[in-house]
Every structure is written in structure tokens, then in C-alpha cells.
Amino acid sequence: MVLSFILQIQETAVSTLGTTPEVTHERLRWFDLLAKGGPVMVPIAILLVITIYVWVYKFITINGQSKIDDRLIPQVKDQLVLGNLKSAKSYVSNVNTSIARVVDTGLDMVGSPMNEVESGLETASNIEIMEMEKHMGVLRIVAGIAPMLGFIGTIGGVIKIFYDISTTNDISISVISAGLYQKMITSGFGLLTGIIAYGAFNILTMKVERFALKLQRAAFDFIRIINTKE
Q1: Residue 22 pLDDT more than 80?
Q2: Collapsing DSSP states into helix, strand and coil, what is residue 34?
Q3: Which residues in 206-230 are b (16+ Cβ under 10 Å) and which e?
Q4: In terms of C-beta density within 10 A (0-12 exposed, 13-18 middle, 19 or more buried), how is residue 204 classed?
Q5: What is the rounded CA–CA span in Å between residue 193 and residue 48?
Q6: Nearest to 44 by CA among 153, 135, 137, 138
Q7: Cα 194 from Cα 17, distance rounded (Å)
Q8: What are phi and psi of 84, to 5 degrees?
Q9: Fewer Cβ close by (within 10 Å): the C or N end of the chain?
């Protein structure tokens, strides 16, 4: 009896294996997956493109304007000691950097009272810093808006789930999957865009702050040169 029972199990297993359907694995395509996020994905994608563009553009611009010419201050000092103010201005005008423009402002004010020279250098430095920070506020705005758009997509996905259930009276995974896709993809993509924008803003801010210290140092060195000359 036991032997017949074992033989029956073996026959059932063999018949089951023989009738098992083949499982096909569909390759996941990122574009198709993102498209399931719905219309909210369009503005989030636009914000991501804007973030990358502003980040790259400002990174290149700040790097170019914050270059340090180690010969600038010594050369200006040598020319001023010799009394060659025009030669000093000519040298500075050929250096297209923020520090050179600040020093050029100081050279224009040579002979003025020291408090006016200091005020002029401070104003010129602030202008250069503000010029570097221009358009960086866009990244801060994107960092706040993108996750909120993702949250709106999440709400839309939840609404879609309940709507599909109410119209079909079916709570199977095939019915609610479309809403789940929209809910999860939009929230994830919006959060990712916000993180990129937030990181880009802080990276650029740190670069500007480090350069601001160098700019103050250059202005201080120039004031020392003027005091020594006098």
C-alpha cells in the first residue's frame, strides 16, 4: 500500500513537471518604466535637465573666474613701488579673473583716502561674489519643487488605484499595478531630482565661499601694498 502511494506521488510529480508552462522574462526598459509615472514626470524631467545645465554651467564659470594668478599681487607691488601705476593697471587688465577686477578697482582709487579704498575693494568683492552666485538660486528652487511634484504624482497614483478598484470591483494586483507604478516612480524620481539639485547648490556654494576667502586675502594684500607705498 505504501509502495503504491509513493508511485502515485511520483506519477503526479512527473505529470506536473511535464505540464509546467514556460516562464518568459520581459526585459525591463527604463524609458517604459519612467513613462508609467504619468504626466507629472514631464515637469520633473524638465527640472532635472535645468538642474544639470545650471550645475555644469556655473561649475565651469566659477572655476574660470576663481583662478588665482600667483604673480598678480607681487607684480602690482613691484610696479607701484617703481611708481608705474599705468603699467600695473595694464598688467591687471590682461588678467580676466575676479581677483584681477577687484585689484583693478583698487588701482583706480590709488591716492584716495584709505577708508574709501577699503570701501571700494569691499564693494567690488561683493559684486564679484554676487556675480558668481547668480542663477544658483534656481537649484535651491528645484530642490524644493521636485519632491513636491513627486508627492503630487503619489497622490495621483493613489487616486488611480481607488478609481480602478471602484470601476472594476477587483482588487487584484493587475488592477492596482498601474497606480502603484505612478505612485512609486513619481515620488522616487522627484526625490532624486531634488537631491541632485540640493547637492549641486551646496557644492557650488562651498566653492564660492572658499573663493570669497581668497578674494578677501587679495584685497588685504593690496591694502598692505598701498600702506607700504605711502
Answers
A1: no
A2: helix
A3: ebbeebbeebeebbebbeebbeeee
A4: buried
A5: 6
A6: 153
A7: 50
A8: -95, 75
A9: N
- Is residue 26 very low, low, confident or very high in pLDDT (cuts 50, 70, 90)? very low
**What is the sign, positive or negative, of the torsion defined by CA atoms of 143, 149, 152, 154?**
negative
Q: Cell numbers for 190, please give them.
A: 522627484
pTM of this prediction?
Answer: 0.72
pLDDT digits (tens, 9 = 90+) for 174-187: 556 555 666 677 88
Tell me which residue of 111, 88, 109 sits closest to 100, measured CA to CA. Answer: 88
Region at 135 (left for phi over 0; alpha for psi -120 to 50; beta for the rest)? left
* Nearest CA among 197, 199, 203 for reference residue 46: 197
Instruction: Give pLDDT tens digits for 127-165.
Output: 889 988 888 999 999 999 999 888 877 777 666 666 666
Helix, strand or coil, per DSSP, at residue 165:
helix
Could you tell me what percent of the chain has a pLDDT over 90?
19
